[in-house]
Amino acid sequence: MRKTVCYCLALGMLFISFASKPTLAEGTPSVTAQGACVLEAGTNTVLYSKNAHEKLPMASTTKVMTAILAIERGNPDEIVTTCDEAYGTEGSSIYLKKNEKISLRDLLYGLMLRSGNDAAVAIAVHIGGSVDGFVSLMNEKAREIGAVNTQFKNPNGLPIDGHYTTAYDLAIICSYALSNEVFSQIVSTQYHTADTGEVKRTMMNKNKLLFQYEGAIGIKTGYTKAAGKCLTFAASRENMKVVGVVLNCPDMFNDSMTLMDFCFDTYEMYTVLKGGTIVMRTFVKKSPYAAVLVTDKDVCIPVRKSEGIRIHTRISVHENLSAPARAGDSAGKVELYSGSKLIGRCNLIFKDDVPTYTYSEYLYGLIRSFTA
């Protein structure tokens, strides 16, 4: 077991301030959504929220979880033989045939671009062995991600009692999914032509933001009478990526663009720590040399353009650091806080290789211990 040892980072307490800058968005925007949330995707910092923790049905935005589970547990190039349950599934469909052979990749495009409910069932049975088995995996993954106020009852979002999420939960699920390159490639695609399956399928993405909003990168539409219009969305401009959710939102595309405009106009990314920054030097067991510990990556946080933020840091170093160690090996972590809220973190790593004592160094140290 590793015991946490805490130090004060040399940076100590930081105060980041900016000259006042006018922004296009004055105040917090009003949207028609019953629930909404927008995050900065790198840190999952909440940039906007409205009833973000209210439990609501989410229609086909459910398929974000279906897709990321399929990608993580399957091989997109494997061929799926579609199950009987998938044939004739109600609602939006890519019209799978019984026992059709089609790649998991093309099913995923059908799932995310055309919102195929039949594709969702085919994927669920292929990956989970059954729809119920797959739904158990969905709920397990939600808890792992931190979506603790979410419960799935099916892989496609068709109306059923007890199937719900919150705008915040769904936003962190989307943020997690977008960190996967295969997922990101699929949901940012405007058109796709399937090269497997019994019939030719050319698909156009239902997400209008990909055609209308600068920097849009996905991700999923949804609608049922019970859930209303739902949309998960994401965009990237300069060095900031935002991901958001609107649930039961009559004007979902315009409201989503309003929210993203507000976030891009109001916030900017600030690099608090650069990757490779020397944080401390420390001796390690079995070596006569001091080890240099550095940050493993840049730590960037979103900050309001016209405001400042106070940040304090906490360093945790693994107990019993010992040689030999190689450059890049983990040595601890650095956490950044604004008040009591964790807003960023990175790993501490060894900057250079740390060798053990040579035999002569060991003897010299032993002799000195007796003669000192």
Please outline what is shown here.
The chain contains 9 helices and 18 strands. It is an alpha+beta fold.
Structure characterization notes:
With 372 residues, the protein is of the alpha+beta class. The protein folds into two domains: 103 residues, Peptidoglycan synthesis regulatory factor (PBP3), Domain 2, CATH 2.60.410; 216 residues, Beta-lactamase, CATH 3.40.710.10. The protein is built from nine helices and 18 strands. Strands 1, 2, 13, 14, 16, 17 and 18 form a seven-stranded antiparallel beta sheet that branches. A five-stranded antiparallel beta sheet has the order 4-3-11-10-9, with helices on both faces. A hairpin with a 2-residue loop joins β17 and β18. α2 packs across α3. The protein starts with a strand and ends with a helix.
Number of strands: 18
The figure for the number of domains is 2
Main beta-sheet strand count, sense and barrel state: 7 strands, antiparallel
CATH C-level category of the largest domain: Alpha Beta
What is the 3D shape? globular
The string of secondary-structure elements, in order, is EEEEHEEHHHHHEEHEEEHEEEEEEEH
The value of Rg in angstroms is: 25 Å
> Which percent bin holds the helix content?
25-40%
The CATH architecture of the largest domain is 3-Layer(aba) Sandwich
The total count of helices amounts to 9
